[in-house]
Write a structure and sequence with these properties.
The structure is a single chain. It is built from 4 helices and 2 strands, in the order ααββαα. The chain is of the alpha+beta class. The protein has a single domain, classed as Four Helix Bundle (Hemerythrin (Met), subunit A) (Up-down Bundle), CATH 1.20.120. α1 runs antiparallel to α2 and α2 runs antiparallel to α3.
């Protein structure tokens, strides 16, 4: 019975991983299209759409790529120590996220600068 549960959970994990990869692939296509649209027509609305899609993609990829684990130990003096360990769960998703960041670096730099300028304008306004 225990072995059957292991197979079930392994199958469930594989199906979920495939679903996440397909969803991220679709999201990546949307990011690429939004980037092309922004380059052709650099309006604030297109910038906002591009930025939102990039944030969603990275948020999803990071959420499923990493796992934070909490581990408690005792030091030689009997004091409890709590460590948080970040593990890369899915190396391929992490690599895909890095690829997106590298490929879209010029546009992301522009977004960063525009955000910086907007922040300065808000400071002046206040």
């Amino acid at each position: 019975m225990v072995q059957g549960r292991g197979v079930f959970f392994a199958t469930l994990e594989a199906v979920e991983e495939k679903r996440v990869e397909e969803a991220l692939s679709v999201a990546l296509d949307e990011v690429d299209k939004a980037a092309q649209h922004f380059v052709k027509s650099p309006t604030f609305a297109n910038l906002r759409r591009y930025r939102t899609l990039v944030q969603q993609f990275i948020g999803t990829a990071v959420k499923v790529s990493y796992r934070v684990q909490r581990q408690s130990t005792f030091d030689p003096y009997g004091n409890r120590r709590v460590y948080r360990i970040v593990q890369i769960v899915n190396q391929q998703l992490d690599e895909m996220t890095q690829m997106v960041l590298q490929r879209h670096a010029p546009i992301l730099e522009l977004v960063r600068r525009l955000d910086e300028i907007r922040g300065l304008l808000c400071d002046i306004y206040q």
